[in-house]
């Protein structure tokens, strides 16, 4: 069929059901964005491409449906880099479309020129450039297929002078195939190991959320074995929070119950997880990873099996299908050994941790430091981070989707929220970008307009995304609720300064004159300041009601400057002065 390259491109997007595009408009993409309204594709015109990319990530993580990122060649595209790498480590199948400077002039150092393939080489799961206008459909179909197969962002690069050309082409069917249920021998080996285990533990990762039916399959297996189910760092939604076998998240600021239970495991089934370092590093000073246990690791990506931990059985496959396969092959007596003791230990550890968590109000100082003590006495009437989290818990709807950000307050919150379904907890993941909370929750709401959503950020991280407040108030954008933890500091980094740099606070302080609630109001949104637990609970209840009526609210939660555990005890140590640094050594530099 005869059509233009942009028609072929848009028809292929339609063939794959891609309905949402995020970015900032630019001439290099205009031939296709011009067709979006006719094609029933919505272009979400953001304030910064970095946030646009995180909106796409939030949309796709919340819905399981692919969305796309697109922008102007050169600076529009370079702005996507952080978001694309974030999506990579969130295992989000996204389509990144990068119109490139024209073939006719590229290399001459012209306008908005940069090597866009090299730029994303280490950011995407797959990338391909369209080499000839006639190949638009072929390449786009393959790129979308690879994003799905590899569960990551995939890039299509296209010289902008390939648009508006007339080609003869057929729209191709999507490349689809069934996910693997794992090698039969290794599934049988895993079933045998679990059948003989006295203390089996299941560890669910993102793969359980991403696989269709993954949570149900892991639940059936857990119930058959009465095995506790831990989840990986920031994958709190990978098992129902109310289930008696749910032990909680491992790793940084996670559940002590989960750590206690996995510590004694003799066999661990690691389902849909690459065993990222934050899920296995010590927590609360406790080494909990069971070094002598037999480890079964299931991942769709063979490169990640055995990458971080010693593995007894590795299975390349879909988390749901492999769990079903293992369950079908368990011996009749599987789980019987020590069943009653195991159930009792799960209940006992969970209740001890729940009790401990609900009585934790304040952050502790390391021996020899007193930052937290000072922070409390400086603002004795202010909420502590944990008080804020408890006030939030009291108002957070059970079915809400929440996002989180990188920062100390968001991290302290890791132990609090639990979920009854997957795709509910959008944490920034292991690329760890500040500025994820707001855009991710906006994307989630676009995908799930009838679900209440609440975004979370610290005040520094929020500043990276604050310009999106100028974009999201427009009529067609759905209403969201965003909570900002206001402690006037880049707290997570300040924590490092208190522990290893003798309170030398370089670059850690924020401007106390800035009002985020005020900025929200200036953008036509609702801005609220909450100073007490009651005010915070009431503000969140009201904001959720308002969200139903199309009103976006930013809640600025005023909290004291207490700081919880640092992110990287594993990577930090106190520096020593050897040669010393002296300001007198500074030389004058010749200026203009
Ligand atoms: C884009 C980016 N820049 C810098 C960092 C380093 N970093 C990690 S946490 C953090 C501080 C976050 O401060 P804030 O958002 O105010 O939250 P708080 O820790 O105070 O709760 C910084 C700067 C990062 N992770 N990402
Ligand atoms: Mg802060």
What does the model show?
This protein starts with a strand and ends in a 34-residue tail after the last strand. Strand 17, helix 19 (459-465) and strand 18 (481-486) form a beta-alpha-beta unit. The strands form four sheets. The protein has a six-stranded parallel beta sheet with strand order 3-2-4-5-7-6. The chain has a six-stranded parallel beta sheet with strand order 11-10-9-12-13-14, with helices on both faces. Helix 12 runs antiparallel to helix 14. It has 592 residues and is of the alpha/beta class. The protein has 22 helices and 20 strands. 35% of the residues lie in helices and 15% in strands. The chain binds thiamine diphosphate (TPP) and magnesium ion. Magnesium ion binds next to helix 19. Thiamine diphosphate binds next to helix 17, helix 19 and helix 20.
Furnish the topology, listing elements before pairings.
Layout: E1 2-4, H1 5-15, E2 20-23, H2 30-33, H3 36-39, E3 42-45, H4 49-63, E4 68-70, H5 75-78, H6 81-89, E5 95-100, H7 116-120, E6 126-129, H8 136-150, E7 154-159, E8 166-168, H9 184-195, E9 200-204, H10 206-210, H11 214-225, E10 229-231, E11 246-249, H12 256-263, E12 267-271, E13 294-299, E14 313-316, H13 319-329, H14 339-358, H15 371-378, H16 385-393, E15 401-403, H17 408-412, E16 425-426, H18 437-447, E17 453-458, H19 459-465, E18 481-486, H20 491-500, H21 516-522, E19 526-530, H22 533-548, E20 553-558
Parallel strand pairs: 2-3, 2-4, 4-5, 5-7, 6-7, 9-10, 9-12, 10-11, 12-13, 13-14, 15-16, 15-17, 17-18, 18-20, 19-20
Antiparallel strand pairs: 1-8
Bound molecules: thiamine diphosphate and magnesium ion (MG).
Thiamine diphosphate is lined by residues 406-409, 432-435, 458-461, 485, 487, 489-493.
